[in-house]
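Q: How do we represent a protein-ligand complex in a form that can be generated token by token?
A: Start from the inputs.
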Amino acid sequence: MEIKEKEILRELKKYRERDLKYEDGKILGSMCSKPHPISKKIVEMFLESNLGDPGLFPGTKELEGEVIKSIGNILNNKNPFGYIISGGTEANITAMRVIKKISRGKKGKDKDKKANIILPETAHFSFEKAKDMMDLNYISPPLDKNYIMDVKYLKDYIEDKREKHGIDGIVAIAGCTELGTIDNVLELSKIAKEHNIYIHVDAAFGGFVIPFLEERYRLENYNYEFDFSLENVFSITIDPHKMGLAPIPAGGIVFKDYSFKKYLDVEAPYLTDTYQATLIGTRTGIGVATTWALMKLLGSEGYREIVSKCMDNSYYLIKKMKEYGFEKVITPVLNIVTIKDEDPLRTSLMLRDMGWYVSMCRCVDALRIIVMPHINKEHIDNFIEALSQCKRD
Ligand code: EBR
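Then emit the structure tokens for the protein with EBR bound:
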């Protein structure tokens, strides 16, 4: 038996060795990073936990409540309600489910009408999945010169009499996947308040960055506000498995308060709880425990240090780009750097042949580099050399 086990593990190792490693510094397009080392022990400790049946795991369930409280704290919410789930995709789908349910209630006899939701062009593709499942109608206003939703256009659109009663939700992004930009949630909140519209903020990436962004990295005249202190922000996606350094799976969905639970609950007669609200039934408590531990261990100060290092390296990359004659699309808002490129697909494939993994923007011809905690200045030096070699070839 023992020999068999050893053989199996050896076999597995061979597969695992073919994977890229974050510490090699070649993964430049990922929003995940090497999990914090404390995670290993916690994964083992919580291996069999299942929050799909919380009555059997009351300790883990209590931890989830505490984590949501801590996350609520960084999002300016004293009474948060939510879950640590599989990731940003599940979180966004969950929020769309709530908007759809509320809109059905409002539409009364027209309840089969689609929910109309304003969503930026640059929104993550998880919203496409929600649309397929729930038959939603998305309206995408143009982007302004800062690559965020054009608020003026949106205001006019909503105030247009024909549309006035038809908008059920607005999705704003705080840390856009492509460029790291933040929608002007402050202005959106004013419009939403006036017209009684639900705002969901997708801060899957930015949620563990913006609250810890030091003043010196904040751009002038840029609006960084995105949380529950703004009226009509009713839900926020915030993923510990991105900049929170937790291992996958650890996504987060947080609502303004407990009253939103009723839109999610389904009866679950054979569980220890009468209702289940999460999309996924059987779910591990590992994300809850690791997030709880990391928030305690690192605290605001620890996260601030991590974010500052990433921002510092982002500006270092910008400096190197300048030296080598590469242009940025925008000054980085968060730790995402964009490099203008006439043929980003070709360049990214060339880079891949040289062992570098970068990704591309959709809304502009550019490469995008996510300067995650596993990236250091030496990696950046080597990358810039490789990029300039691509351009010489
Ligand atoms: C990027 C996920 C990613 C992770 C990509 C690792 C490449 C990697 N983004 O190697 C936003 C703003 C996102 C996002 C994912 C999701 C979905 C939602 N919103 O379900 O955890 O940037 O993948 O998050 P997920």
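Residues 286-324 form the longest helix (39 residues). The two ends are 55 Å apart (CA to CA).
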